[in-house]
Design a protein that fits this description.
The protein is α+β, with helices and mostly antiparallel strands. The chain is built from three helices and ten strands, in the order βββαβββββββαα. A four-stranded antiparallel sheet has the order 2-3-8-7. The chain has a three-stranded antiparallel sheet with strand order 1-6-9. A three-stranded mixed sheet has the order 4-5-10, sandwiched between helices. The radius of gyration is 16 Å and the shape is globular.
Length: 149
């Protein structure tokens, strides 16, 4: 059964329609390779996605368990993010059981909310030292980290 509303989190206010684009996914998961408007049925996950995309965040990941986002390096430096509420009309589920949906055509938001980042930081967390080291190694960032010191 299709959900009634979907959500898209963004660091920018977009007037008009959301335009399909490639997902910012370093792992290039199969369900994220197409140009599409990506959304989720989990409102808090969409908010967390916007937070981990903020200026100041260098590396992060998103999941569907609380807290939704893990920040490996940096921290959000923006005051506001935007949450778009979307109708499901043009969306299809990316993969059965996955809480991600996509539309290959532009989508006009039903509602746009401006949210204070500080009010939603409970939806993300800083990585543990072990997670941070794994992230650095996985992304071959050892030399980059040393150059910052």
């Amino acid at each position: 059964m299709k959900t009634k509303f979907l959500y898209h989190g963004s660091i920018k206010k977009i007037n008009g329609k959301l335009i399909p684009k490639k997902a910012d996914d370093l792992e290039n998961k199969k369900e994220n390779l197409h140009k599409a408007v990506y959304s989720t049925s989990v409102k808090d996950a969409a908010i967390a996605m916007a937070i981990i995309s903020c200026k100041g965040v260098i590396g992060a990941s998103l999941g569907y368990k609380k807290p939704y986002g893990t920040i490996y390096a940096g921290w959000p430096k923006q005051k506001f993010i935007y949450l778009y509420t979307l109708l499901t009309d043009t969306f299809v589920q990316s993969k059965k059981g996955l809480k991600q949906w996509h539309s290959f055509i532009s989508v006009k938001p039903l509602k746009i909310e401006r949210l204070k980042v500080k009010d939603y930081l409970h939806l993300v967390r800083k990585s543990t030292e072990k997670e941070h080291k794994t992230w650095v190694k996985k992304n071959h960032l050892e030399k980059w980290i040393k150059s910052l010191k």
